[in-house]
Write a structure and sequence with these properties.
The chain has helices at 12-24, 75-87, and strands spanning 4-8, 29-33, 37-41, 48-52, 67-71, 91-98, 103-109, 115-121. The radius of gyration is 14 Å and the shape is globular. The chain has a four-stranded mixed β-sheet with strand order 1-4-3-2, covered by helices on one side. Strands 5-8-7-6 form a four-stranded mixed β-sheet, covered by helices on one side. A hairpin with a 6-residue loop joins strand 3 and strand 4. The protein has 122 residues and is an alpha/beta fold. It contains two helices and eight strands; from the N terminus they run βαββββαβββ.
Length: 122
């Protein structure tokens, strides 16, 4: 159902370096360059994540309660991606670990303060 999600940035080169390295951990890459941002994913026929300079040219801000969750294949991948986010300068919003019986996740903020989760089921 979701086609794509975008996150605002005030420093596109910095954000691109963060997401190039982070999303490579789960097999995603830049799929599209649209001048004021990039789209990342596995292919254009699957959901993508965009990083953009806001269209209205006003500063990008973090949406309170907004979070992007990246689904991965294993707990080891959750651990690896969460660790990579912090190595790249992201901030910890909750360490990787179990959250209930079948849900395993880690939470972090990117360099612009956008909140993300990396998770797996089972």
């Amino acid at each position: 159902m979701i086609g794509y999600v975008t996150l605002g940035t005030n420093d596109l080169p910095r954000a691109a370096a963060f997401y190039d390295a982070l999303l490579a951990e789960i097999g995603a890459k830049r799929l599209m360059d649209f001048g004021r941002g990039y789209s990342y994913g596995e292919s254009m026929d699957r959901p993508t994540l965009g990083i953009v300079i806001p269209y209205d040219t006003k500063p990008a801000t973090v949406g309170n309660g907004v979070m992007v969750a990246l689904g991965v294949d294993s707990r080891a991948t959750v651990d690896r991606v969460h660790k990579k986010a912090l190595e790249l300068g992201g901030t910890d919003e909750g360490p990787a670990g179990p959250r209930g019986d079948d849900f395993y996740a880690g939470y972090f903020r990117d360099l612009d303060g956008n909140k993300l989760s990396v998770f797996c089921m089972g």
